[in-house]
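Hello again, I could really use a second opinion on something today. I've been puzzling over a protein and I'd love to understand its fold better. I'm sending you its amino acid sequence along with the backbone structure tokens. It would help a lot if you went through both lines with me. I've dropped the whole record in just underneath, so have a look.
***
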Amino acid sequence: MAASSAFMRLACGLFVVQFLLPSAWASDHPLSAIDWLSNSVAPPQAEPAQNDVTPLAALPSEIAVLPLDGNTPDGVGLQPAAQLGLASGLWGRSSAADLARAVSTLPDGSNAPPVLNRFLRDVLIGQFDPPIDAAIDDRFFLARIDRLLSMGHLQEADEIIRRAGPEESRRFRRAFDIALLTGTETEACRIIENAPDISPTYPARIFCLARLGNWDVAALTLGNAEALGILTPEEEELLLHFLDPELFEGDPLPAPPRLPSPLQFRLFEAVGERIPTEQLPVAFAVADLSSTTGWKARLRAAERLAAASALPISRLLEVYAEGKPAASGGIWERVSAIGSLMAALESEDGDLVSSALAPAWQAAIAGGYEKAFAKWLAARLEGLDLSDSAMRIAFEIALLAEDAVLAEHFAGDRIESQFLLAIAKGLRGALPGPNMLAQAVVRGLAAHGPSPAYRVLIEGDRGGEALFRALLQLMDGAAGNPHATQQSLMLLRTLGLEPLARQVAIELVLEHGKA
């Protein structure tokens, strides 16, 4: 069916009112490091070209005059830097562009020690002194938000945007997508209605007009967009079905994109063709936590978010307990194994717990949320008389839970366990590293000061860039590059992050460095 005739059918099916349509909104190209943001606002009319890298020599001097009124977005955070063990002036003389680039080049974290993903989230939501040029460049702020979104931390990203003020186009673009994924789009649509400077694109305006009950105006807006040739045929067809699904019932829908934006995701959902979230970025999993979603989809969404530390483990366990496994294998096997352990823990019977612990721990590893599960489980194992095999698992759980006292209780006399326990307790001296990675870890935890690879950055007051470079090394192939691992652990300790360095070392050896 031609788009023009489809629109005529829609226009005839709705009550038409006189309405002065605003001028056309330009199509928005992605402005962030993530490529699934909705095309919801037009780009700024004139945005000065900026170099990707600001040379150190070109940075403002110590007496440069900038508007330091405390209102720059990069001054916003959810927890003080000191709470992380870092100085508030961590960004030092680094430019916003350099810091943004450093964040955008970090790997996705799927192969990283779990503690590093949690630490990175804490750094991104931390409250630090803004970069030296933050008053004229917000790229680092946007990079922080984009990374939080890619990690599934929608609540934290939303709160930071709220504190910074969402009524700015690029910040609102991200707030709008958070609202779409969390089901709070009505508030975001009211911002569009009351803040014309945001300049919404046609798809976003049409969606919001309909969401606020202005269906007739939404239809006229769609007609205007059609006349101007702004929308693609797929966008037109999808919006036509959205505005009147009964009128277009039986007409084919466009094929869903491989990587939909949150707005496309919600539009397909509204016309009854919900796109599965399993293969989408983890942020989309938030949409599957709704009680209207099937239990299996909700289970997998909860697992993915718990693995990303974006959902409390207690909430995952609540979803697990909502029903009985409907089949065997896969996620149902994990539900059954975790359920059996929960029942054993309630009995406080060491034999029952010993029997249930291994399957449940393997389920947590398979689901990717073993770090969060370990923190929940460790205290519940304390005082139980476990079998030898269960004690070995309990030792690993205590280490991941960062509980050295409990780990010592379960360590036994195994050489590998004593090696890891010594790291957890912060012991110095010659530790028997069983392989190259373990030996590199020992050297990294014993050396003083930054290595030459990081010294230039530290001496140039660019500690934040050095930190992100160390995270890059540790999150991407640390097991295959012991020398870089040693240098990165030295850097963490130089910045005062001794406990983090030790925990990273433990998790690396647990995952990759066993003899």
